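Below is a typical protein record.
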Amino acid sequence: MAFWTYTLTGFGDFFEQRHVAFAEPMPADRVCSICGRIPSNAVHLPCAHISCLRCKVEVCDAKQCPFDGTAVTEKELIPFETDACYLERRRVVCVVDEKKCSSNFSGKLSELKLHLVRCRDGDMHCAKCNRPVAREAAAEHYRKCCETNSTHLSATDARVREGVEEVRGIKEDLESLQQKALNQSDSEDEFVNGVSRLIERLANLDRLLSVAQETVANAHREGDQSSKPPAPGPLRAASKPGTCFTTCKFEGVYAARDSLTQSKKEHELAGGVRTLSGYTFGTYCAIYMSKEAGSEQVAVTFAICLQPGEWDEYVEWPCSKKVTFVVTHPMDERNNIRLTSRIVGYKGAKKPRPGQLNDGCWEESIYWNEIEFRGCIVKDTLFVKVEFE
């Protein structure tokens, strides 16, 4: 299930600056166009952009809209309010570590406040062995934990974390350098573009180090379950040098396939939000009835939808990446299925607006029978690599 996360401000101490995940995207006129937060009090600019009260100060000081340069005076601003009752009418979900919590909470904002007091999802690091441990299993882990079990992995984990912090520090320095160059001269385009490309490369390195850190964490968990035989997993190597990739999974594919009828000809699954080469996007899979040569067959297709992300200011727009979806086989790479696509068109490739999702590009498809015949479904789940070139 997809969700859209926003930062709230002005809705009480508990929710002040808290990230809240909504089941549907908020209308653009409820989100500050500048900082992306949902404010309880905001103003309409003459150009139809929205500004929270904090960003309004900067707009009034500059006397123009930061997006299109429209002249702005304080008298032209139209104040409006988003009250708590409005948010109460919109469904929210509990998200921990970029996925829904195990209790699958979905309800009103006021109910979320009560749920968060009881929710124990998420990981903590054991003070003895430094392994990531689910909070709900922390007490049991401490009773059985032995510090010497993971000396090697803990040291590796520490080095990876240090690398992640170093990369993010370099990113901040480059951002500062880029801003100075912009302020000095408008003719330094080549220099600024070079810095932007460096930042995109650092975004990839940041992602790879984060994946390495997660790999170490998975090794910790596997160590806790060493008595169990290893389960086969999909092959996830890059197809060729220079290709960036991430992996998503679509669960419950058998139920989605079996839900298709003459009246319901399509079922869509969400594979979560990912960041690749600096671009943030949601991943989706559609299983649908396709008419070919007079007969109906079940087909499967995939798409990504660009959405706002923390690297949007440093990547190229419109997005022109070639996208490849690889349905991965759990053991044999020869049985992988590759589907290519491009992010094209104004609604698909433009820089996403705060709180909004771009259109997806649904292109190549594969028949369901081919996926099932090749044995690509693992425990009711499709593992799909998304590659950028």
Remarks:
- Confidence is low (pLDDT under 50) at residues 148-152, 226-232.
- The chain is about 30% helix and 30% strand.
- Residues 272 and 282 are 6 Å apart (CA to CA).
